[in-house]
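Appendix B: complex inputs.
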Amino acid sequence: MKDFTNENFINILFFFGLFLLIYALNIFMGTAIFERIVTNLFIYIILVVGLQVFMGNSGILSFAHIGYMSIGAYCSGIFSIPVKMKSMALPDLYYFIQITTFDPIICIFIGGIFAAIVAAVLTLPLMRLNDAAAVITSFAVLMVIHSIVVGWSAVTNGPRTFFGVPKATTLELAMIFSFAAVIIAFLYKNSRFGLLLRATRDNEVAAESIGANTVYLRWFAVIVSAFLAGIAGGLWGHFITSFSPKSFYLRETFLVISMIIIGGSFTVTGAIAGALFVTIGYEFLRWIEKVIKFSDAIKFEFIGLTEIFLSITMIVFLVTKPKGLFPFLEIGEIIKKKFFKKG
Amino acid sequence: MKLTCNNITVDFSGLRALNKVSLSVETKEILGLIGPNGSGKTTLLNVLGGQLKSNEGSVKKDNLDITTMPPRLRVKNGLARSFQIVRTFESLSVFDNVKSASLTTSKSNVEKNNYCNEIISYIGLNKIKNELANTLNYGDRRRLEIARAMATSPDFLLLDEPAAGMNDNESEILLNTLNVIPKKFNVGILIIDHDMSLIMKLCHRLHVLESGETIAEGSIDSVKKHPDVIKAYLGKDF
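Resulting structure:
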């Protein structure tokens, strides 16, 4: 490990290659359904990698992530809906927002920044907590955000569908953002903040004895993590164009957490691998469900296979491989150990 | 430079763990803190390191009062420590363990890397510096803790039983390593250990605790002959 940049470089290069490969595969397949799946995959990669920035480096499970995603999605949507459309979609919206519209790309960034600000304000006092208390309070944060989104009808259209968001997310855009998120995650992990935070994860007392300020280190990570979640939310909003608060609640939370647990939260590679694994598994099972349905093999209604599969997979992983597919080493380190043993 | 503590008293819910203990260490000096189990050695080290607050008394580095300072700020003022129960960063490599400790120093990034490499090879962990800490054996982990403490560029090093669990050969190597540190890095060492042959060879001065009270302090010869110390701890063989 002569220098950090070198290692980051191999990792980033690997995922650049992988993303291009997925992109090429999409062109080869050429169907709208496949493109939709791949775009979703890239958005989920941003989400999971964002979760890894906090959860992986600090070792604290966070349920609040999808909450930050919803902030990004709504925020980006509100600012990008065309003025004419706004009076219809959100008649009670405050005047100054009513009359302004920005380009969706700018709005996605606004959403990310706003999610980061909310996270910064909400979570600073929570960063002292460890173990169960930290997990439960993060769950409470998710519920608080969800309640606000449901209740603040003037801005979010309440529990009803929020519509009129311009379609702006293409596969290419999602891929570029996704790649940027991967770079951010690797740089963060190997930065001084990342390394010290990982030290507090392994042993808080010892980390403080070498000068780490646990509370602030965790706080910085939450802010970066929420920013990425907000970006993912914005992209998703401009992809799906209409959604409601229940699009950002328990089901999505457990989906993201299952991805990071299966892949391994300590590594960025694991986060991405988890997103890939779960997406592929999901689509495969959905296909099986469809085949069974149309073949009339079973007379009663047959749904929920994907959820059962996901739960069982998560349990199997927690029992047999509790640290996931990539527990400690990034793909770059694995490649280096295998092929450049002497160097 | 001088690290001093004055009249340190610590109570654990009614039990007096330390009673008006005072001691001081200077840079380039090695002070041994010995005494039977439960005599308050680790408690005193925790007070010095900031992990524990004393009920009475003060801790000073030269003229700077650090009594109420949290551990992370004491490091910046030159106090580093190792732990009785090993507390390495298990999922980080040996190099990253050491590197993480150098991050809060004011060196440039290149200097930090060079300094970390220097310490790693000095402590003798060079061959395993890319291994994860959780793959190391016990003796190596203990040495890694010392290397990590050294990476903070301390003025004072507080070592809590660094030789525990080491065989004779390993503690001999440790002795040679520690022996050179004070002069080479301009550091004062306060060391707790039960390995009396290591302590007698290494230390310049000794401080003996029993039931939270100082029963003797001074040069090795004077402490060895002190009747209370012989009775409480050493026995007649030393």
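The beta strands of chain B are 2-12, 15-26, 30-34, 56-61, 64-65, 79-81, 156-160, 188-192, 205-210, 213-219.
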